[in-house]
Amino acid sequence: MKISIDGWRIDSKTRQATKADTTAILSPRALKLLMELADANGDVLERADLLHRIWPNVTVGDESLSQAVAELRRKLGNRTLIETIAKGGYRLTVPVIRTVETLPNAAPGNISDFYHLEAHALCLDARNEIVRCGEGSIARADTLTAEAVYLAPNCADIRAERAIALVRAHTYWSEGRYLLDSALKEAETAVSLNPKLAVAQSALGYALSMHGHFDAAEEAHRAALAEDPRDPLILHNAAWHLMSRGRRRAAIAYFEQAACVDPDNIKAYLLAAQLSQPVEPRRSRRNAERGLKRALARIEEDAGDPRALSAVAAFKALLGEHHEAYDALTRIDVHNSTQAIFHASSMAVIGENDRAIDILEELFDHGWRDVFWLDSNPSLSPLRGDRRFMRMREHLAVA
Known about the structure:
19 helices; alpha+beta; 399 residues; five-stranded antiparallel β-sheet
């Protein structure tokens, strides 16, 4: 069941609200409140009744309900969407449209069930958004892959792309673990549709790794590489799994291979350079120089490419050009961008520890939760004794 309210499409399973190019993630309490108000069809629901419905068997105060109302008004961009009734409760001020989606099952021999041109085009756009790492790229990739699944629910690779997008949304900007559970279900669906599809196994491994199921994740990554050892996305996901497990040397090799098979890949060289710096400085320098060359070439094609601009600063930091790196880092706006994590690590490399932690705290406030990065990236080593860093680490460990 999905509902539309004030132009927003609300998906109760993923707690996503989408409107045009905008995606908002609703907290569990806000979604429950919205669905209760929607079921009331404009009638007033008393505060005591709402408290009982949203928090059954739990004693909470009126402030919890007020916060949920405020969240809906803020995230859905309409302060009049929910009317407060004096000494009464709340009601919706706009009509609710309900739709039930019935998706067809795959029919043997019907290729349209397994390859949908528009759906695959949406996934290509989603990958490009993730690669560019600009402001709002994760949210746009999430929206694109959701639409792709709607168009082609029986395409295993579409489901796999959706799973990967959901893991990234969870890792960088989501407000809870529910997206990771959804990602795992999408990946499992992809594998059930086509167990031999490499990207499906890779997506499963990626989701399992972030879930902390490392043995099962390793088996999935092995299966993916056995089917396709040259797909840069599959190599990258395997490298990330190895990095999270502290198997640095193997992770470096996979990142380097990902960069070799994809001439546009800058991030893989950066990760390889960062991982190898403490143990193999020559290898680190070689990777940094190769990556810098690619980033500069990319800037010649697109002077505003946020990924390339940020990478240039990061590579210069690793190469010891600290003044140039600092100047570049302070001129690049990475607000609401996944590139901010590389700015934090680069600031740590050049000794700007306070600036690095400021960036990490802003990421943390936006919902970023990649504890494996904090533990595994050696560029962050100078920060690990800092009180603020340790506090973030503790919060992420129990999130």
